[in-house]
Amino acid sequence: MRSLRMKLILIMVLLILALMTVVGTFLINGVGNFYIHEFYVQMENTFTQDFILQLQATASQGEDGPERLRELLMSQSNLGIDITNRNVYVLDQEANVLDSSNQKDTVGITSNLLSAMNGVVGQDSSINAAYMDLAIPISSEKGNYIVYILDNKYTVNALIANVLSIIFRSLALGLAICVVLSILLAQILITPIRALTAGTRQVAAGDFSQKLEVTSRDEIGTLTRNFNNMAQVLQNTLSQVENERNKLSTLFLHMTDGVVAFGVTGFVIHYNPAATRMLSRALDPTMHFSEIFGQEGNFEELLAMDRSQYVEARKTASGCQLDLFMAPFSSEHTYGGVLVVMHDVTEQEKNEQTRREFVANVSHELRTPLTNIKSYAETIASSGEELPPQLRANFMEVIINETDRMTRIVQDLLTLSKFDSGKLEMNLTRFPFATAVEHVYAAVSLDAQNHGHHLTRQLPPSLPEIEADRERIEQVIMNIVSNAIKYTPDGGEISITAGTGKGTVWLQVADNGIGIPEKDLPRLFERFYRVDKARSRESGGTGLGLSIAKEILNQHGGDIVITSQYKEGTTVTITLPAAL
Ligand code: ADP
User: Fold this and answer.
1) Would the pTM of this model clear 0.85, i.e. be above it?
2) What is the arithmetic mean of pLDDT over 464-473?
3) In ligand 1, which atom is closest to the CA atom of 513?
4) How many domains does the chain have?
5) Which residues are paired to 340 by β-bridges?
6) Percent of the chain beyond pLDDT 70?
7) DSSP state, 426?
8) Nearest to 215 by CA among 239, 193, 242, 197
9) 42-77, pLDDT tens digit by residue?
10) How far apart, in Å, are the Cα atoms of 345 and each of 283, 315, 322, 350, 551?
11) Which of 546, 547, 550 for a ligand 1 pocket mutation test, highest count of atoms within 8 Å of Cβ?
12) CATH number for the domain including 530?
């Protein structure tokens, strides 16, 4: 039974049928019993003691006793003899018909008749029997007779048939009314239920926009109201969940750490762009844990771990150092999986390495002059007056030179540390770039001359002004020109040229000196990096000049570029923004 309407119709029909059956049964039984009862009351009223005596007297009057008896009985109007339905018989002791109202000469032996044959009045009839009867024994001088009244219940049956027909007709009408009522009732019930069904379907499809109209105050009305409330709560919860999900996915998308999630089967289910970048490979759901992190962890072991635990590992992927944190993300094995978070520590490692190298370099750079100073000072101290004055003077000079070198190193380091901590103050002034170059040129000319270098300068008259810390810019230029003098064998060619670019001014120092091997070029700006350590030290270099120059230029928004051909020469170019 699919629809509510059909169910309702069936219930109503069954209800009516049950009601009519009960009513009908009671009615038919009532009618039957009433008639039987009425029959015997009638008989009792007729067959009084007096009437029985009268019957006995009539029977004794002559030979035609049976006929007289019949006539007497038929004359009793309240016996209701009507030949077709109710008859009277006069029988002898053996129930042979002696006379009858309907001329029949036999009767069936009934229990009442048997009673009368035994001399007792028979007056008992069941509702189920097809007849009602009464048998009264009459004794007379002429013989013993039985007066037998037999009713074929035609009147009762006709009445019952009539009642039945009424019942059936009212049943048919009742059924028709009930079907119509059921349809109407079903309509009343079904309409809001249909609306509810449509509503639930919409909610199931994720559309929460429509609110159902509450049309009644009954249970369906309450259900509709509750449904609306439920949909509202659901919508709120869903939007909260959605919000959280968006937050998480944005976080996931933009976080710098790489994240890869593996499902319970060990295959990739989620990953973020950082993960792809760090692993330098495209990830997809067909990849298994063992394929990506097989060397760093065991998937089954990770999955079996407690949620609060995690495993740390280190992975190297195409030059990147990755710290891995691997943990199961649910203790429910069926829905769980493993989450791997990757932290790129390449830069950190590099910084750590640089720091270690730097400390080692500083110690080394300071130890060399200190060792020299100590040994010379000890020699002077131990030899006392024996040391020739000239040698003592030489030793003292070495000590002074080494001390100066240490002072230079410490000063350079201080400058760099100020750059690092951002504490270096710039004394910005506006001055013509050419004057700074001229100033350096004048300062180094003698040194260049002493080395037999041919130092030239070519500065266009239109060189603009710059806004910078003049002392530091001159320090940079001085460092570059000094390097050219230092790293060019005596009698070399050194040229200083300058010019203007797009809002910039540039200076180029070119020499035909020892040059720099190509492999060393990218490392020149590292602190303490020197191509030829001995030569640098000999000429008083600290290995910090170019690093400081780069820092100063960057601080001014400028840059420095070095190109070189090993054993042929070097060209250093600096650019600075021109003052507006
Ligand atoms: P240093 O104090 O040793 O000169 P710098 O930082 O100024 O330190 O230079 C770093 C290194 O670069 C030098 O040790 C040298 O090997 C190389 N270098 C710099 N300028 C030149 C140049 N003009 N020709 C050849 N090598 C150079």
Assistant:
1) no
2) 95
3) 24
4) 5
5) 260, 326
6) 99
7) P
8) 193
9) 888 888 888 888 888 888 887 778 888 888 888 887
10) 21, 10, 6, 8, 25
11) 546
12) 3.30.565.10
Contact 322, 342 (CB under 8 A): yes
What's 289's domain CATH number?
A: 3.30.450.20
Token reading at 388 = 């020739």
Domain endpoint, select from 310, 344, 378: 344
Rounded Cα distance between 338 and 313, Å, is 14
Q: Which atom of ligand 1 is nearest to the CA of 525?
A: 6
CB 537 within 8 A of CB 364: no
Our separate counts of H helices and E strands in the chain read 15, 16
Q: Identify whether 471 is part of a domain.
A: yes
Smallest CA-to-CA distance from 154 within 85, 88, 108, 83 is with: 85
pLDDT, one tens digit per residue, over 234-250 is: 889 989 999 999 998 89
| CA-proximal residue: ligand 1, atom 8 (nearest) | 543
Check: CB of residue 142 under 8 Å from CB of residue 59: yes
Give pLDDT tens digits for 330-370.
Answer: 755 567 899 999 999 999 998 898 889 889 988 988 898 89
Alpha carbon 269 to its chain's center: 14
Listed residues 376, 405, 420: the one ending a domain: 420
Reported as half-sphere exposure (CB side, CA atoms, 13 A), residue 54 has a value of 13
Query: Is it the case that residue 147 has pLDDT exceeding 60?
Result: yes
Domain that holds residue 302: 255-344
**Counting Cβ atoms within 10 Å, is residue 165 exposed (0-12), middle (13-18) or buried (19+)?**
exposed
Going by CA atoms, what residue is nearest to atom 21 of ligand 1? 483
Same domain, 415 and 429: no
Beta strands 428-432; 268-271: pairing state: unpaired
Q: Over the stretch 279-308, which tens digit does the pLDDT of each residue have?
A: 998 999 999 999 999 899 999 999 888 888
Which helix or strand (DSSP H or E) is residue 149 part of? strand 143-151
Using CB distances shorter than 6 Å, the residues near ligand 1 are: 479, 483-484, 487, 511, 513-516, 524, 530-532, 536, 541-546, 570
The two tokens of residue 122 are 């028979």
Spatial distance between the Cα atoms of 148 and 153, rounded to a whole number of angstroms: 15
Residue 359 CB-density burial (10 A; 0-12 exposed, 13-18 middle, 19+ buried): exposed
